[in-house]
Design brief:
Shape: globular
Strand order of the largest sheet: 3-2-1-4-5-6
Catalytic activity: nicotinate beta-D-ribonucleotide + ATP + H(+) = deamido-NAD(+) + diphosphate
Pathway: Cofactor biosynthesis; NAD(+) biosynthesis; deamido-NAD(+) from nicotinate D-ribonucleotide: step 1/1
Structural class: alpha/beta
GO molecular function: ATP binding; nicotinate-nucleotide adenylyltransferase activity
GO biological process, one term: NAD+ biosynthetic process
Number of strands: 6
Number of domains: 1
Radius of gyration: 16 Å
Distance between the termini: 38 Å
CATH architecture: 3-Layer(aba) Sandwich
Order of helices and strands: EHEHEHEHHEEHH
Strand content: 15-25%
Protein name: Probable nicotinate-nucleotide adenylyltransferase
Helix content: 25-40%
């Protein structure tokens, strides 16, 4: 099983890696692809770093993790990018692979707004990790698997703010990507 961890990764941080490592340790997936989304249909691009720079940060962060891979498949797709389109493209390119989605509870809360969400839910396993102050226990469908990954209180928004304020972010982001993150966001 290949887990697909979609995100802006603006920037990638240790919370992302902790979730991925937990999923691998629990053997939910054999590998995880970090799908860098150029434009999330539910978010404004106001503080979004250019996609190739985000790709470089993710590649640097994942370099020492052979089961984790950066994926830029959405870079050449129509925007905004919709998960169903990316899933279809990946399934066509890799017919021998079985894919699962990895999403936070915040995304599950709005899952009913996703394009073709019923089809996604019927076709793909969806691993949901906890998010602070988000409770979705009332949402259920057969392919939904709630995982008990460690709760991450780190957010990319807070990291960007800390950089603007000149605060130390070294404990919050992968050390291999730290210099790139500090350079790109200053």
């Amino acid at each position: 099983m290949t887990g697909l961890f979609f995100g802006s990764f603006n920037p990638i941080h240790n919370g992302h890696l902790n979730i991925a490592e937990y999923i691998l340790q629990q053997q939910y997936c054999e590998e995880i692809w970090f799908i860098i989304s150029p434009q999330n249909p539910f978010k404004q691009e106001i503080h979004l770093l250019e996609e190739n720079l985000r790709l470089k940060m993710v590649e640097a962060a994942l370099n020492a993790h052979p089961q984790l891979k950066a994926c830029n498949i959405e870079f050449n797709m129509p925007r905004p990018s919709y998960t169903i389109d990316t899933l279809q493209k990946l399934s066509n390119l890799y017919p021998d692979k079985k894919f699962a989605l990895i999403i936070g509870e915040d995304n599950l809360k709005n899952f009913h707004l996703w394009r073709e969400h019923e089809r996604i839910a019927a076709t793909y396993l969806i691993y949901v990790y906890p998010r602070p102050s988000v409770h979705t226990t009332n949402i259920y469908f057969p392919n939904l698997v709630r995982i008990k990954a460690p709760l991450s209180k780190i957010s990319s928004t807070e990291i960007r703010q800390m950089i603007r304020e000149g605060k130390d972010i070294s404990a919050l982001v992968p050390s291999a990507a730290l210099k790139l993150i500090e350079t790109y966001y200053l």
